[in-house]
Amino acid sequence: MASHGTGAACLTVAVAALLAVFCGTGSDVPGPVVCLTVVTALVSLWSLRLRRRDAGTERRVCVLVLGDIGRSPRMQYHALSLSKHGYNVTFVGFLDTKPHQDVLQEERIRIVSIAEVKGVGVGPKLVTYVTKVIIQCLQLLYVLLRMELQSHLLLQNPPGLPGIAVAWLVCVLRGSRFIIDWHNYGFTIMALSHGQRHPVVRVAKWYEHVFGPLATHNLCVTNAMKDDLQENWGIKATTLYDRPPSIFRETPLKLQHELFMRLDEDFSILLKALQEYEGFIKGGASLPSLVCAITGKGPQKEHYRKLIDSLHLEHVKICTPWLEAEDYPVLLGSADLGVCLHKSSSGLDLPMKVVDMFGCCLPVCAIHFNCLHELVKHEENGLIFRDSQELAQQLKSLLSEFPSSEGRLGLFRRNLRTSRGQRWDDNWDQNVLPLITAP
Questions:
Q1: Burial letters for 68-102: b for 16+ Cβ neighbours within 10 Å, e otherwise?
Q2: Which residue in 92, 249, 336, 410 has its CB near the most CB atoms, within 10 A?
Q3: Domain positions in the chain
Q4: What is the pLDDT of residues 290-345, one digit of tens each?
Q5: Distance (Å, rounded) from C-alpha 153 to C-alpha 402?
Q6: CA separation for the pair 166, 168 (Å, rounded)
Q7: Non-local CB neighbours of 368 within 8 Å, separated by 6+ positions
Q8: DSSP E strands: which ranges in 280-363?
Q9: Which tens digit of pLDDT belongs to each residue from 95-129?
Q10: Are domains 57-243+427-437 and 267-418 of this chain identical in fold?
């Protein structure tokens, strides 16, 4: 710290002396040269101030997500793991929903809330999007440059526009190390609504390809993504599989013992399967009635709620409870079967909801997509389906012996209990901690 302060003082004196010489001697040096020299000196002075380190710098890490912190469990787990190892964490993101209680109560984690930028609400959509990006750039620069110097900046991608570029620039200016945690590719998510050939999608793809490789370290969620980053992006990444933290475990039967299903994507697939299941029972099949708990929120939630009411199902009860973060693991631990309708836009990421379910030893029926086999083992810890008819048949097959634990549903649960892998903490310590502590 002393050397930085001395250097800044010397540079300030040098700039003042240089100006005095030019002004006092009537030098013939062109004005632009004088201005360029002074500007360069001032930028160097500013850079020295930005990079000023103290005794606590190496124990400070910024975790950044351009999304809702409360709905970013993996980044919350990162923050908790860092704090457990004695790091002071500045957690930057939107604060739309309440984060987990462990995050809120941890003294080493300080949440810095930023507002979600909407952009200009008039004119073409492109103008709205461009103004949103510009305003968000300025907002991030203001927040990140004002905080204490951090040894590392850990960013979730997606969303990465403009976060990757801004975070990289801040790390260059401040001498911090930059880590990207690749959950997916942002451009593939945008392509779902705009199409692969849309100019905005092409720009987003170019942007990720240009700025992604500039990170000091990279994390990703699957080996398939690790291989793709290496082969097509020139990025060497470390696979950090999503693992359930200790809060996810089986809930004692005395608390709850019903059938819950968790979904948030293409709800129509499940609705059709439940209608078929209802038909099985009305046709004389010996099957239990279902209670389905649908968690999460989305733009179509109200639409589907009205659709559910119009079905008039007699043997299937569907509820949509609002859950606090700490209640969600209790719900999963109380369930007998989970349903996952997540489809990856890139085919390279895995549904974290299934990780949470497996942490509670909850068997899963999951819709098929590439690389799902890295997590869901068909006929071992769950089943994989491709459409509503196949899902309906799986529900019928799995629940035909309910509540006996001797059927396939009980077998899947026993397999999950005996093959329970690493928890998040051990996985993080093995794969991420060495990157943080590296010189």
A1: ebbbbbbbbbbbbbbbebebbbbbbbbbeeebbeb
A2: 92
A3: 2-38, 57-243+427-437, 267-418
A4: 998 877 666 666 777 788 888 888 999 988 777 777 778 888 888 899 999 888 88
A5: 49
A6: 5
A7: 384, 385, 386
A8: 290-293, 316-319, 338-340
A9: 988 898 899 999 999 999 999 887 666 767 777 88
A10: yes
CATH fourth-level superfamily of 267-418: Glycogen Phosphorylase B; (3.40.50.2000)
Rounded to two decimals, the pTM is 0.73
> Which residue shows structure tokens 């080493």?
108
Rounded Cα gap, residues 274 and 296, in angstroms? 19
| CATH hierarchy code of domain 57-243+427-437 | 3.40.50.2000
C-alpha distances in Å from residue 144, one per residue of 31, 93, 196, 218? 34, 12, 33, 20
Query: End-to-end CA distance of the chain, in Å?
Result: 18
CB 382 within 8 A of CB 364: yes
Residue 253, Cβ neighbours under 10 Å: how many? 8
Average pLDDT over residues 383-397: 95
The residues, ordered by sequence, that sit 6+ positions from 191 with a Cβ below 8 Å of its Cβ are 198, 201, 345
**Using an 8 Å Cβ cutoff, are 103 and 81 in contact?**
no
Which tens digit of pLDDT belongs to each residue from 202-230? 999 999 999 999 999 999 999 999 999 99
* 261, pLDDT greater than 60: no
Q: Determine which helix (DSSP H) or strand (DSSP E) holds 167, and give its type and residue range.
A: helix 163-174
**Phi, psi for 51 (deg, rounded to 5):** -95, 10
* Partners of 382 in beta bridges: 364, 378
Tokens of 408: 């396939």
Q: What tokens were used for 81?
A: 């793991």
Amino acid 83: pLDDT: 97
